[in-house]
Predict the 3D structure of the following.
Amino acid sequence: MRITLRQLQIFVAVARTSSTTEAGKTLPLSQSATSAAINDIESLLNTQLFDRVGKRLVLNDNGRLLLPNALSLIERAMDLEQQFSETQVSLPSQLRLGASTTIGNYVLPGLIAGCRKQRHFSECEAVPSMRVAIANSSKVAESVANYEIDAGFIEGQCHEQNLEVIPWLQDELLIVASPFHAIAGKGKVDFDALQKAHWLMREPESGTRQTVEYELLRHLNHLNIGMEFGGTEALKRAAAEGLGISCVSRWAVADFLDSGQLVVLDTELPKLIRKFHIVLHRQKYLSDNLKHFLNHCAGSEMFKTAVKSNGINRLSLT
């Protein structure tokens, strides 16, 4: 076998950075050595893996075909090294996670902390690090599809091909307002009052925005949108200041409800429930550390059932 793991590692680095110079910095290797390695692997495979666009190297269809296999081989090799490194300190691995705003800010930190406490590391075992990218649901799904992150946690719909979309947690959406808002404290709020109220909303690309509009418009037909915010913290603080009412995740406003800065409005609307999802690439190799974290996240029977019914038997759920 003439292709080496080192060549595949260099290929992956260039695929992620679109630059031999930037890839060389992460390895580390000189730009010329990185470029030579790419030329060697293209020669061995007798095919071009990148399109040269100015100074950038962009994966073509051949490169996109190779990428999941290269990643799988590299991660399997890392797992082998960890399994047979009981007598020496192993290098820490890094999990790259992506989460939509609500999950990333209010759900994942507790899950990560709980996973660290649950897992007892030996003196020679390196604790895996985690890098969490927070973006809207569509961007997270896109990053999973492009192998930029290992797993995604989203609250919106996913339209990316080649992704497993696994139902995970349920989330209740609450209609909230400042306790001093004119609409608060006057008993049940009818549909007419909700239609006339000024609504505070997330940006259109937000998974929360998509769900809120879908659920509310089914009953109200029209929303009087007063302001839009690019983040949940700004939105809930605006609501607490009396600038309007909003529909947000219970996870996001739990602290403001406890402190009395916000109150839940009693409305004629039915209970609003949405599902959080975990998204994985169908061709993604699940390392031991990733499987362990996903197993920790899979505390609900709903998630376990969904994993089994979708045929993702790579997760050793117990």
In short: Confidence is low (pLDDT under 50) at residues 87-92, 121-126, 300-318. The longest strand covers residues 163-177. DSSP finds 13 helices and eleven strands in the chain.
